[in-house]
Design goal:
heterotrimer, A alpha+beta (346), B mainly beta (97), C alpha/beta (371), A: 346 residues, alpha+beta, Peroxisomal Thiolase, Chain A, domain 1, 9-stranded mixed β-sheet, two-stranded antiparallel sheet, 14 helices, 24% strand, C: 371 residues, alpha/beta, 10-stranded mixed β-sheet, 13 helices, 12 strands, globular
Chain lengths: 346, 97, 371
């Protein structure tokens, strides 16, 4: 009998400073591209924050929401952290997060890299470890403090944030019903080691990259599970901006209502490896028992991870004490462009 | 604290004891002329906090300013400036609740 | 057995570009011998006070350096207690004399702080705090926390803090060896650069070079000021473990022991050299030493009670603020300066208070004319 596996608890964190698209526009001396991109503002990490500190904040929230913690000791655990901005090139973010949480020493772990789908790939890998019973629990984190070149259009969207998920086989908040991934060698967006900022291939990152991979993976998953897009209460598509997810949702046949909670990108920007997971967090914050979620992430280079979740019947009771990350953490501490750049010169 | 690897390793055992702990500000100031490893983080808050069983002196997050009586919680942050080659100094700071 | 101060010497304090640490120690040793009735063969031991020679110059082993200034290489050792190194070196010397092992010893304190940048000097001084438990702090920051509490609990004002620096600069004008000979006003202090609120630049003692030395003896000599009493008190290295931020308990303990040993009360003291590393430190000191009630130190200062014509003359040398604060030299300079005033019959009884760090170590001495 196939063991059920899913999300036990989740946590999210966004930094407390925000910059408006209009502020970036005035520094660029041009038109405010925010409305076109569907991103009004984005989060900016503090001078003492990085992907590791943000990962710890998100993971700590998920950890403190666990009703039972004994299962963290029963068997080896696994932690994967996916990011494009791991502070060390060699020395895993996962290890520091595990130390900060005080997790047991019998842990498998590694840092993941696959552009914006490193977080969902971490989640999928945790599901595999736990479902196969090689690990008793998994902690999957997607986190980024995205960098953008001054003057580049990516300055409008490159945000910061982290989302963390404890994965297990019991006490589930949401069961993972199925997952499919797709990947090809498609050079739409990349960064070489000694470069501070990534390069992107302009319009090539649209149809052959983002749209192609999400549609191929998404359709395969629906076929495998014998489901239609209209079966879902919520649909999540990776959010490099507010435009792309709306377009691919339309192609898949989603309604505006199905995607409305997934578009946190409007308020926090594109959090790269955290993006789809942060959208999932917001959806879970709103979802009711028994509801179904479809999620398709996208990582440049390129690939897509798709998942179908079914919320536990007692989801409402489980999360009754949990605040909603967007309302609880969204700050109104707007900063200037010069302050934004000062913090970027780490 | 100098940022030596062994020293960092001895101190990271304490992180779990503090993350999430809440307390109250007893006295607070802002360090405007910082030590060598905190040049980029200055100016930053430095406060004496009263926790349930003890007092502790901690830096405030980012550019947050505190007052006597503020309730704060311990969070995980970088506690020294970024550098190119050395280990990254992580530790505990306090943030207003 | 009475301990007498048989000679004293203080160098100019300031930015002494032409003098190295070795030059300062040498000058003080040879100077104090010249000012005394002793030859250098009669110095049986030397106690050296220095905080940061190891940090600023990489120079340790200062006992050996001091010993080598005198022909016979007398036994010598270095004593360290942050800014209270001078007071502690005195205590070690006093116990050596009281043991009967020695009859005549020298205590010399020196510090060379200006070869390194201001930044490095401040960094070096951080070693006086708990570098792990107080990471992120600076000395102005630690004393700022104490100032903030004092202002909250007793209503001490910005002007009262400034009055300390103003008075000490006034006193410094009368001291040819002081680092600063410059009168300042309350509004100048109030408007100086903010270092760590509420402490501003002119609340803080400077970075200085300098040295001082005394010769202590148990021989019966005429006209030598006597050490009537001394005491050492301790408290936690870090502020977090203190019971209060508005009393330096170590100083209260040290004073109690010193007053008892001398058989006198605070009211008997005519002048005191106290540890004004920051303006708030002086306000705490004059309360903790029993000159004024707790909480009223600021008021007393601004009302002129701590200067000539007042109740007790605090820091006639100009204090750390105006005379300068070469850390290892300060504790010895305090003794040397008062002993001069007693010798010149300007006062009969004086007190010195030397504090280490934010108040973890305190040493109090009471000096008097021969009874």
């Amino acid at each position: 009998m196939d063991k059920s596996v899913g999300i036990v608890s989740w946590g999210a964190y966004i930094p407390q400073s925000v910059i408006k698209s209009s502020e970036i526009a005035s520094a660029h001396n041009g038109k405010d591209l925010g409305p076109t991109l569907g991103v009004e503002q984005k989060t900016v990490p503090g001078i003492d924050e990085d992907s590791t500190t943000i990962a710890v904040e998100a993971a700590y929230q998920a950890y403190s929401r666990l009703a039972k913690k004994e299962f963290l000791e029963k068997k080896m655990g696994v932690i994967f952290v996916g990011s494009e901005s791991h502070p060390y090139a060699v020395k895993p973010t996962s290890g520091i997060v595990a130390q900060a949480l005080g997790l047991q020493k019998y842990m498998a772990m590694a840092d993941m890299q696959f552009a914006c789908k490193a977080g969902t790939q971490s989640l999928q890998a945790c599901f595999a470890y736990v479902k196969s019973e090689m690990a008793g629990f998994g902690l999957a984190i997607g986190v980024d403090t995205a960098q953008s070149r001054p003057g580049d259009v990516l300055e409008y969207t490159a945000g910061a944030g982290g989302a963390a998920f404890f994965v297990g086989t019991e006490n589930l908040s949401a069961e993972m019903i199925g997952t499919v991934s797709v990947a090809t060698d498609t050079p739409d967006f990349w960064r070489r080691p000694r470069q501070e900022f990534p390069e992107h291939a302009g319009r090539f990152s649209g149809e052959p990259a983002y749209f192609n991979h999400i549609l191929v993976a998404g359709r395969k998953l629906l076929t495998d599970l014998n489901m239609k897009i209209s079966d879902f209460d919520y649909c999540i598509f990776h959010t490099p901006n507010g435009k792309f997810p709306r377009a691919v949702a339309k192609t898949m046949g989603c309604s505006e209502d199905q995607i409305k909670y997934s578009l946190v990108v409007k308020s926090i920007g594109n959090t790269y490896a955290a993006a789809s997971l942060m959208a999932l967090t917001n959806v879970l914050d709103q979802a009711k028992g028994g509801e179904k979620i479809f999620m398709a992430s996208y990582g440049s280079g390129a690939g897509s991870d798709c998942f179908v979740f079914k919320c536990a019947d007692n989801l409402k009771e489980r999360k009754s004490e949990w605040n909603r990350f967007l309302t609880d953490q969204m700050s109104n501490q707007y900063i200037s462009y010069s302050e934004y750049r000062r913090r970027s010169e780490k | 604290m100098k940022g030596y690897p062994a020293e960092y390793w001895r101190l990271n055992k304490d992180w779990t004891k503090w993350i999430g702990k809440t307390g109250e500000v007893v006295a607070t100031t802002v360090i405007r002329v910082p030590p060598l490893t905190l040049q980029k983080m200055a100016p930053y808050t430095f406060s004496l906090i009263k926790f349930d069983n003890e007092h502790k002196e901690l830096m405030g997050v980012d550019d947050e300013i505190l007052k006597i009586g503020d309730r704060v919680k311990c969070v995980f942050r970088r506690i020294a400036d970024a550098n190119e080659k050395g280990i990254i100094m992580y530790g505990i700071k306090i943030k207003k609740i | 057995m009475k301990i007498l101060i048989a000679g004293s010497y203080i160098t100019k304090f300031g930015e002494l570009w032409e003098k190295s640490l070795k030059d300062l120690i040498t000058e003080a040793e040879l100077g104090v011998i010249k000012n005394s009735k002793f030859d250098d063969e009669e110095i049986e031991a030397i106690f050296v006070s220095n905080m940061a020679g190891g940090i600023f110059d990489g120079q340790l082993h200062l006992g050996a350096m001091a010993s080598g200034v005198l022909k016979n290489y007398p036994p010598a050792m270095r004593v360290e207690g942050a800014c209270a190194s001078g007071g502690l070196a005195m205590i070690v010397a006093e116990y050596a004399l009281l043991s009967g092992k020695y009859k005549t010893v020298m205590v010399v304190g020196a510090e060379k702080m200006t070869d390194v940048s201001n930044q490095m000097a401040t960094e070096g001084l951080n070693g006086a705090a708990d570098t792990e438990a107080e990471f992120g702090s600076t000395f102005p920051g630690l004393y700022a926390l104490m100032a903030q509490r004092h202002m909250k609990e007793f209503g001490t004002t910005r002007d009262q803090l400034s009055a300390v620096s103003v008075k000490n600069h006034k006193h410094g004008l009368l001291n040819p060896l002081a680092q600063f000979h410059k009168e300042i006003t309350i509004s100048e202090v109030n408007g100086s650069e903010m270092i760590a609120p509420p402490l501003r630049l002119l609340d803080c003692s400077p970075i200085s070079d300098g040295a001082a030395a005394v010769i202590l003896t148990t021989k019966d000599l005429p006209n030598c000021p006597e050490i009537m009493g001394f005491g050492q008190g301790m408290d936690s290295l870090s502020l977090a473990k203190r019971k209060s931020l508005t009393t330096i308990v170590a100083g209260v303990k040290a004073a109690d022991i010193a007053y008892k040993m001398a058989g006198i009360k605070p009211g008997d003291i005519e002048a005191a050299e106290i540890h004004d590393c920051f303006s708030i430190a002086e306000i705490l000191a004059i309360e903790d030493l029993g000159f004024f009630k707790k909480g009223l130190g600021g008021k007393a200062t601004i009302e002129g009670k701590t200067t000539y014509g007042g109740k007790v003359i605090i820091n006639p040398s100009g204090g750390l603020k105006s005379n300068g604060h070469p850390v290892g030299a300060t504790g010895i300079k305090q003794i040397a300066y008062l002993s001069q005033l007693i010798r010149d019959k300007k006062i009969k009884t004086g007190l010195t208070q030397n504090i280490g760090g934010s108040g973890a170590t305190a040493v109090v001495h009471i000096l008097g004319g021969k009874r």
